[in-house]
Amino acid sequence: MTTILTDLIQALSTGELRVIDLTQPLGEQTPVIGLPDIFAQSPGFSRETISRYDDAGPMWYWNVLHLGEHTGTHFDAPVHWTTGKDLSNNTCDTLPVEQFIGPACVIDVSHESKSNHDFLLTAEHILAWEEINGKIPAKSWLLLRTDWSKRQGADEFLNLSEDGPHNPGFDPSASKLLAEERDVLGVGVETVGTDAGQAGALDPPFPSHNIMHGAGKFGLASLCNLDQLPPTGSIVIAAPLKIVDGSGSPLRVLAIAPHL
Ligand code: MN
Are the C-beta atoms of residues 19 and 256 closer than 8 Å to each other? Predict the structure, then answer.
């Protein structure tokens, strides 16, 4: 074993480094994004028991799961969006695995998102963050801390009004900067999807999906515990299930981080 890995194991065992779970529980109560009525909807999570130490299987317990690829804490692959559909290696089973691990840059806009549910992160916000924390390195995860994961229940989390959902997200200027000039792995958010609730009205519509996936970048939605990460200095591991031709997948997202 190399010294680096020995040191890592040592730091984890002593608690110098912590493993932080950035994943929401996945179950029947998991909120799912709702689309306008003219579009097909993704179902919520459901399951049926195959057996549970009973006549159907006296010594074992297992279930059949039924859920959309984009349910709960999940990964968006580039093929998810029309802009990324013709890229090579753009599906869950073909993405290069080294792209599932990278340093995390955490931008805290929890204060702004509390007073403005439609808050959009702009390129200016990112440049201001870089003034303090340094330039976002290539192949890093950009995590948007909004504290949205602390909202209780589906109604508060989805935050629907008559004109649709309201939650923070990215201005097109931010997505362009991150994809084209910073070359990040992708973005991670605490909300149900990587775009703002009202992002259908932006230009382009749904800029985080449109621009990031068009550039071969990933999305992580419905993360939590971002308040336990420093602005820089942690590592995020986010590996989707190897679903053949998959557009995304629920996953366990872990961070390795120093104590705050
Ligand atoms: Mn998704």
Answer: yes
- The residue written with tokens 């299930």 in the block is 241
In the reported structure, the alpha carbon of residue 32 is separated from the centroid of ligand 1 by a whole-number distance in angstroms of 10
Q: Which residues are catalytic?
A: 80
Contact (CB, 8 A) for 165 and 197: yes
1 has pLDDT over 80: no
Q: How far is CA 157 from CA 19, 59, 96, 112, in A?
A: 25, 39, 32, 16
14 CA distance to ligand 1 middle (Å): 36
Tell me the per-residue pLDDT of 29-69, one tens digit each, with 9 for 90 and over: 999 999 989 999 999 999 999 999 999 999 999 999 999 99
- CA-nearest of 37, 49, 45, 86 to 67 is 45
Expressed in angstroms and rounded, the spacing between residue 60 Cα and the centre of ligand 1 is 33
Q: Which residues of 90-117 are buried (b: 16+ CB within 10 A; e: fewer)?
A: bbbeebeeebbbbbbbbbbbbeebeeeb
192 C-alpha to ligand 1 centroid (Å)? 8
Prediction pTM value: 0.97
What's the rounded Cα separation, in Å, for the pair 79 and 252? 20
Compute the residue count for the chain: 260
